[in-house]
Amino acid sequence: MAKYELLQGNQACALGALKAGVEFCAGYPITPASEVMEILAEKLPETGGRFIQMEDEIAGMGAIIGASVMGKKVLTPTSGPGFDLKQENLAFAAMAEIPCVVVNVQRSGPSTGGATISAQGDLMQAKYGTSGDSPRIVLYPNSVKEIYGTTITAFNLAEKYMTPVILLMDETIGHMRENVCLDEFDNVEIINRKFPDVAPENYHPYEPDETGIVKLAPFANGKGYRYVINGMHHTIDGMPSLTPENIYKTISRINDKVERYKEDIWQWEEQQTEDADIIIFAAGCVSRSASEAVKQLRAAGHKVGLFRPISIWPFPDEPLAKAIKNAKMVLVAEMNRGQLIHKVKEIATDNLKVVPLNIYDGTVIMPEHIIQSIKEAAK
Amino acid sequence: MSYLDYIKEKQFPLFTCAGCTHGTVTNTFLRVADELKLDKENTVIVCAIGCAGRIPTFLDFNVLRVTHGRALAFATGVKLSRPDVKVIVFMGDGDAVAIGGNHFIHAARRNIDITAIISHNEIYGMTGGQYAPTTLQGFKATTAPYGMIEPAFDVCELAKGAGSTYVARSDVYHINHLHKVMKNALTHKGFSTLEVITSCPTQFGRRNKMADPIKLVERIRDITVTQTAAEKMSVEELKDKIVIGEFVKTERPELTEIYEEKLGKLRKN
Amino acid sequence: MSTAYKVQINRKWCKNCGICLAFCPKNVFSFDEKKKLQIVNEIQCSGCLMCEKRCPDMCMKIIREEE
Ligand SMILES: Cc1ncc(C[n+]2csc(CCOP(=O)(O)OP(=O)(O)O)c2C)c(N)n1
Ligand code: SF4
Ligand code: SF4
Fold first, then answer.
1. pLDDT over 90 for what percent of chain A?
2. Domain locations in chain C as residue ranges
3. For chain B, which terminal residue's Cβ has fewer other Cβ atoms within 10 angstroms, N or C?
4. Which residues are within 8 A (CB) of A199 and not within 5 positions of it... i.e. 6 or more apart?
5. For residues C55 and A301, what is the distance between their CA atoms, to the nearest angstrom?
6. E strand or H helix at A262
7. What is the pLDDT at residue C1?
8. Type and span of the H or E element at C12
C-alpha cells in the first residue's frame, strides 16, 4: 500500500539529499532555507555523515567543496544575500570541476529584502552571478514531491558532469506542506562520480577522455593519485598556467560539457500545449497558479497551455521553441521585473507576441492575475 | 629520503623573486616533513592566493589551492569529512588575517586539527605591494605612499584569543628555531598556528630602502627577540621588536574527536 | 681523521640572492663582479648548514666527506 506523509518543501529537499547519498552539509542560517540544514544536522550523524554550521556562507561553500574534494557528496542551503556570498566559491567549484549541490530558496531581494517573502529574483544570478564564463545547471521544482526527486537529480547531475548544481526553490514551495507518497523513488538511480581508469603514473586529472568529463580521484585515496586542484587556469595536471592554450582549454571544457549534454539535463513539463494559441511560461510557485489558470481558461473554451521549465539552466530553448511553434502569444509570468522573458524573446519568432506578467510586491502570482493578463493582452 | 623528495622537481625553479624568503619557510617545511616522514598520500595541503599561497602547488602532496583567504574554510571541510587525513594550510598574512580573518578565528575556536602556517611578509606581494594588516606603522606600500598609518595586527595574539591550542612565532633568520617550532606545530593535536616572519624584497624591500634581500633578513635578525630575552626587556625596549617563541601549548578537545564522541553513537548500521 | 665538506650549488635554481653568503659564519661564499654567487673558501666550511637551511630556493647542498 502506498505510504503518504505530510512534508514541507525544505524537508523534502533534505530527505531527497539523504536519499541521493549526501554525506556532508555545511551552511549558515538564513530564512527561508534554514530547515534544510536543520534537518541534515539531525540526520547526517545517523548516516555517518557530517554537518557543520560555518561562520558565513563563503565558508559554508568552501567547506562543502573541501569535503567534495575528499570524495563526499555535499550540499549547502542558502537564500538571498547568502546566495550572493556563495558566488565566489561557486565559481571555484565550476572552474575546478568539483561536484556539489547548492540550494537557494529564493526570498525577496535585493539585499536583506524580505526574509519570509517569496520571490523569483535570482533566476539570472543563478547562472550569471559569478565572474567569468562558467557553466551552471539550475533546477527549479514546483511541488514537495518534485523537490524530493529533483534534489536527487541535482546530486546525480553534479556527480555525472563534475560541476556544481543549483537547486532553486522559492519561499512558497520551500515552506509549503503537501501530503506526498515517495514510494516511486525507492529504487531511483543514484549516480556516483567516476574514479580514474588509468594508472597513477599516466593520470592527468584535467585531461578527460572522449566523454569530456574529468575523473577526479578523491584526495587521499590510498591508490597513489596525487595532484593539484586549483582555481586558477590550469594544465592537465591542475598546475597554474596562463598560456592561451590552457586558458582556452579550461574555459571551453567546463562550459562545453554542459552544452554537450544539455538534452540529458533538460527537464520541463507541458500542459495542453499541442493546440494552444496562448502559452503560459512559468516556473516554481508561479507555475502552480499557471496550471490552475490553464484549467479555468480551458473550461471557458480558451486554447491555453503551460510550458514549465524545470531545468532553468541550461535553458530548454529547443523544447520551448517546439512548444510555442504554433502559438500566437506567450505570457511569461515571473515574480521579478522580467528575467527569463529575455530567454523566451530570444527564441520567439516575429509573429509571436511575448507578454510579461511581473509581480514583485511580495505577493504570489495567482491564477486570477494570469487570467486577467491574458484577457488584457488578447484584447 | 631527502627533503627534496617532497617537491615536484620538474616544476622548479620556484616562481618567486630572488631572495623571497617565503621559500625559506618551504625549505624548513620540507625538512620537517622528511623528518616526520609525512605521508604524502594521506596529507592534504590547502592554500590559496598570494605568493605564499602559490608555492605549495610545487609540493608533491594532494594540494587544494582555493580562493583568496578561504583556505581554512575549505580545510575545515577536508578535515571534518576525513578526520584521518593530515591537513596543513599555508597562507600569506593578507590571506590569513585580512580577507581570511573570520575563517582563521573560527578554525581556531573550533580547535580542528589543522596546522596553519602563516608567512608574514608585511605586504601584499602578489598584487604589487599594497599594505597588509601586518604592515608596521610608518612603512611604505603602494596604498600607503605616506607610510602606514594603521596599527598592525598581532597574529599570535589573535590566534591566542580565538582559542588556537598551539601558537608560535618564528622567522627565517632563526632557522633552527623555525625548524623546532614547525615540528611542534605539525605534531600538535588541535588547531596550531605558526606565524613566520618572512621578507619580500620586491614589493616591501624596494619601497622601504631595503631592496637587497640580505638587508631584509638582517632586519629580521635585528628586530626579533626571543621570549626569554623579551622577559627581561622593558615595554619601551620592546616597542619595535617582534618576539619569537611558543606562546601557547595547551590541550583542548579537538573538533573531529568531539564530533565522533558526541555524535558517533547516533550512527545507525 | 678530519671532516671536510663539499659545497654544491644547484645553478639551475639559484637566483643569486646572497642570503647564504651573508650569513655564512666562515665566509665560504662571495659574489663575483656580476653578482653571481661563488664558492671561494670551501675548505673553511664547518658544515653548520645555515646556507642550506636558509636558502629560499632549495639549491644549496652541503656534503659531508670523511677523510
Ligand atoms: C577575492 C580576491 N580579492 C583580491 C584578490 C587579489 N589578491 C591576490 S593575492 C592578494 C594579497 C596577497 O597578499 P598575501 O596574502 O599577504 O600574500 P603574499 O603575496 O604577500 O605572499 C590579493 C589582494 C584576489 N585574488 N581575490
Ligand atoms: S613579490 Fe615578494 S612575496 Fe612575491 S615572490 Fe616576490 S619577493 Fe616573494
Ligand atoms: S641562498 Fe640559495 S638562491 Fe640565494 S644565492 Fe644562496 S644558493 Fe643561491
1. 98
2. 3-66
3. C
4. none
5. 85
6. helix A262-265
7. 54
8. none
Which residues share a beta bridge with A100? A164
**What count of Cα atoms within 13 Å lies in the side-chain half-sphere of residue B238?**
14
| Residue in A90, A228, A234 to test binding to B, most B beta-carbons within 10 Å | A228
Query: Hey, where are the domains in chain B?
Result: 17-268
pLDDT of residue A305: 98
pLDDT at A379: 81
Query: What pLDDT is attached to residue B220?
Result: 98
What percent of chain B has a predicted confidence (pLDDT) above 70? 100
- Classified by CATH at the fold level, domain C3-66 comes out as Alpha-Beta Plaits (3.30.70)
Structure confidence at residue A324 (pLDDT)? 97
Cα(A148)–Cα(A177) distance, rounded to whole angstroms? 13
- B180: cell is 623546532
C55 interfaces chain B, CB cutoff of 8 Å: yes
Nearest CB neighbour to B4, from listed C15, C22, C58: C58
Question: Residue B98 gets which letter from DSSP?
Answer: I
Rounded Cα gap, residues A128 and A150, in angstroms: 21
Q: What distance in Å separates residue C46's CA from the closest CA in chain B? A: 16
Q: What is the pTM for the complete model shown? A: 0.98
Distance separating alpha carbons of residues B118 and C6, to the nearest angstrom: 34
Please report, rounded to a whole number, the percentage of residues in chain C having pLDDT higher than 90.
91
Write the pLDDT tens digit of every residue in B212-268. Answer: 999 999 999 999 999 999 999 999 999 989 999 999 999 999 999 999 999 999 999
- CA nearest neighbour of B73 among A28, A78, A126: A28
Residue A151, all three cell numbers: 534534489
Domains parsed from chain A with CATH numbers: 1-265 (3.40.50.970), 269-377 (3.40.50.920)
- Residue A240, C-alpha cell as written in the block: 597554474
CA distance B179 to C25: 19
pLDDT at residue C67 tops 80: no
CA distance B225 to chain C (A): 18
Please check whether residue A204 touches B, CB under 8 A: no
C2: pLDDT strictly greater than 90: no
